[in-house]
Design brief:
The protein is of the alpha/beta class. The chain has seven helices and seven strands; from the N terminus they run ααβαβαβαβββαβα. It has a single domain, classed as SPOUT methyltransferase, trefoil knot domain (Alpha/beta knot), CATH 3.40.1280.
Length: about 180
């Protein structure tokens, strides 16, 4: 076994990436406070060709040094938009035909392995401490959670994002 070189990985140029087809997934970051988490979401979105990221509330926007530290240039390839109120972002996405899916532990959550994303899916990720707000849950079509067996029943939001986005990507790629 040998590690692949950058040339062997066949990475797309920024121009090739911009022209490539994206998966109909939008990530909505609602009041994410950590700039490193925001950057990680951009990097995950780039890796799995996510259509866009909506940054809401206190979620910081590029350019910012600490976002770039983890995004590694993905803020230049992934489309993003700032919307002050997450409810307004949800309304825009519903009008565009997106299914609104909160990533949260609720009494009606689907477990991730049973979740099949629709052809247009908006994934809402909430604040690192308080999660997805009750207001947002009321606007959502469904909630999805990652089953866990440890004592915390909590993952870092960017780690959670990576798991959920990969799941959606793998389901849509095989359609």
């Amino acid at each position: 076994m040998k590690k692949l070189s950058l040339d062997e990985l066949g990475r797309k140029s920024v121009e090739e990436y911009e022209q490539s087809e994206k998966y109909p997934i939008v990530l909505v970051l609602d009041n994410i406070r950590s700039l490193n988490n925001i950057g990680s979401f951009f990097r995950t979105a780039d890796a799995f060709a996510v259509k866009a990221i909506y940054l809401c509330g206190i979620t910081a926007c590029p350019p910012h040094r600490d976002i770039h530290k983890t995004a590694l240039g993905a803020t230049e390839t992934v489309q993003w938009k700032y919307v002050d109120k997450v409810a307004d972002a949800i309304i825009l996405l519903k009008e565009a035909g997106y299914e609104i899916v909160c990533i949260e532990q609720t009494d009606e959550s689907y477990v991730l392995h049973d979740f099949i994303p629709s052809k247009k899916t908006a994934l809402i990720f909430g604040n690192e401490v308080s999660g997805v707000s009750e207001e947002v849950l009321e606007l959502a079509d469904k909630a999805v959670e990652i089953p866990q067996e440890g004592t915390k029943h909590s993952l870092n939001v960017a780690v959670c994002g990576g798991i959920v986005v990969w799941h959606c990507y793998s389901k849509l790629k095989n359609c």
